[in-house]
User: Fold these one by one.
Assistant:
Number 1:
Amino acid sequence: MTAHTRDSKILHRSLIRHPETVISASGSYYILSNGQRILDGCTGAAVAVIGHGDPDVKAAITEQLSQVAYAHTLAFTTNSAEELASTVLDGNPFGLCKAYFVGSGSEAMDAAMKLARQYWVEAGQPQRRRFVARRQAYHGNTIGAMSVSSNLARRAPYEDALLLDKVSYVSPAYAYRIQKEGETEDAYSQRLVEELDAEFRALGPDTVMAFIAEPVGGATAGCITPPKGYLEGVRRVCDRYGILLVLDEVMCGSGRTGTYFAFAQEGRVHADLVTLGKGLGGGYAPIAGVLAHQKVIDVLTKGSGVFVHGHTYQAHPVCCAAALAVQRVLKRDDLVAACAEKGKWLEEELRARMAHRRYVGDIRGRGLFWALEFVKDKQTKEPFEPDLHFARNMTDEAQRLGLAIYPGTGTADGYAGDHVILAPPLNVSPKDLGILADLLERAYDVVEGRVCWTN
């Protein structure tokens, strides 16, 4: 920790624990001010999909700055924004035809919520005022996005004060904790779909605007994956009542799970609105976006002809240029397919090394997006007490050894439970993947020993 970090005027996430200073980054590694080299095994929060310091992205940013750094979208557009939208929406995948670029995943979710509301107002059904979302899900930190999230720790200070009140929740697709003993995958999937259908009917289907879900769960529950047929069933139920389906791919999208859209692995599924973020800009610039289906755009076009929403920095030309360069690297180097292949190796390695460990309850994920959930008792799945800080101990020990991983708490029920996420760059080398597995195992050994000793 440097002196200026100790005396920092930054309001860091913690007022007690001060972060280490990164002085450079290249490929899959950070270099800290103390000289330590850290393998970026989580890319922040599954952000740096092509690693750090890519020369093509740096060149694209510099070139954009030499052309135009900023133009307000009320009056102007830029080539970088237009080309980014054309690249992401090439061929109108799954009927998605328009992109709205903002600065963060939270802003993207707020924009999606407003698009959903405006859609129904202009479709002549203004009585649709409700959202349905899932427990143990996270959709962002702004007031709107937090209102459809269920990360209890992040909501707690603002509950009953600032959050929207027209949101209800159904069960997450969390097989480790919700699938019953002896229940088949098909039966479990059908039970979740029936629960959603029952919630729509209880609310009155014509009062619901949209159902919001992560195709693969993010940081709140740690890479939970849906059972086969679940999202197809969700799509059918939404269609039955005319309810919009909003899929949040801010964390799991942009190739992270081995297909560009995570929902593409779920059969005959399409979304009315999709949010993208982290991997869109790969950490080179703050950018996220909402992708809208032709159905949504047609209603607005025939109605007011405008989207009643706006941000000063939306479709920022430098951010769009950075994201465009990232997307071109993903395509040029076929990194999405590479992610799927490397993910198979990582899954096998994690299961071989960690599944039998005393406190590893579950290993789950897809592509290069994996989580380990830790439990006190593997038979009962009882989580550790929150004040033990198992996940934080894991990340601290891993960083001491030279590996960055992403911690999660409240995994089981919003209060108790621990997991860590692994999400290295999609172009991580096989050698560095091996190092990641080695360091994770070493970190776990230390923490397990510490817990056994104290218990």
Note: The chain is about 40% helix and 15% strand.
Number 2:
Amino acid sequence: MIQFGPNSTTFLIAGEVYPSQVRATAHGVSAAVGKLGALFATVIYNYIGNRTKFWVVTWIPLLGAVLTYVFIPDTTGLDLREQERYWQKVREGRQEEYHGIAVHPRHLSLFERVVLKRHLRYDPKADAKAKVDELRSLWEKMEADVGKEGQGKGDGASLVSSKVSSYFAWEKQGSPRLDGKEKGKNE
């Protein structure tokens, strides 16, 4: 338990949980709080007896384990880009518009599931549509920027893959959509 806290919760979790814009600062604050906890233990151990030290060594790490279970999300298998999509929506004040895997119950902490109820927004179909819309707007922005520069059409290799770029170019030409409905007709 002693090695679990300083190694895992101070360094590994902080690198995965915090949004990239505040990651370094939040990681530093987390490390500082961990050092304060170590300082507290060092000072308190000078004023308590040996028998009491064993009780402190038993219960404080268990309290830390419970707090970790309750408040730390499980980011195992979660793509950091997907977490950034979620945090971008949070920073914009539009977290209710995010329906992706980052709010799936298996990736949320107990506090987020029970108290904040973030898992209720998980909807894979709405997320897939949002991802396509985001890619389309990124592709359109890229195409507009390339057109302004007078370089002709770009393949989008830097921002979107060539397959995605060719799909949106094909779609823009007014070709029938993959679901069989003609573009522009009332649905």
Note: Residues 152-157 have pLDDT under 50 and may be disordered.
